[in-house]
Write a structure and sequence with these properties.
3 helices; rod-shaped; single chain; bZIP; RNA polymerase II cis-regulatory region sequence-specific DNA binding; DNA-binding transcription factor activity, RNA polymerase II-specific; bZIP_sf; mainly alpha; Basic leucine zipper transcriptional factor ATF-like 3
Length: 119
């Protein structure tokens, strides 16, 4: 019976060594489809994760911008207090605000390239 194909009876019967060639093709096709579906699901999951992370970063960025704006307002308010104090200061006619701003201390807003209006 060597070299002779046995007719397919509707199912594969590996216990007797009878395998329909179309059955193995179908199994390979199913395996390829399974792998492709896994890749597709993984890609969709990664895309959703990226979108979620992007939304979180946008929210954090907006919060930081609000904080910067609040701090700039605080600087402006303290600058006005200082300017009012300079009028009655007993230390003399020195402009303390200009001295403070000219001091070589690091200013975080300068690192970001933000414009700071202290007038």
């Amino acid at each position: 019976m060597e070299g002779t194909l046995v007719a397919w009876s509707g199912s594969s019967d590996d216990s007797q060594g009878v395998v329909d060639p179309s059955d193995t093709k179908q199994q390979r096709r199913r395996q390829r489809n399974r792998v492709a579906a896994q890749r597709s699901r993984k890609k969709h999951t990664e895309k959703a994760d990226e979108l979620h992370q992007h939304e979180q970063l946008e929210q954090a960025n907006a919060g930081l911008r609000r904080e910067i704006e609040g701090l700039q307002q605080e600087i402006k308010a303290w600058s006005q207090v200082l300017a009012q104090h300079e009028v009655s200061c007993v230390l003399g006619g020195r402009n303390l605000l200009l001295d403070l701003l000219a001091a070589p201390t690091p200013r975080p807003w300068a690192l970001e390239g933000l414009e700071l209006d202290v007038s």
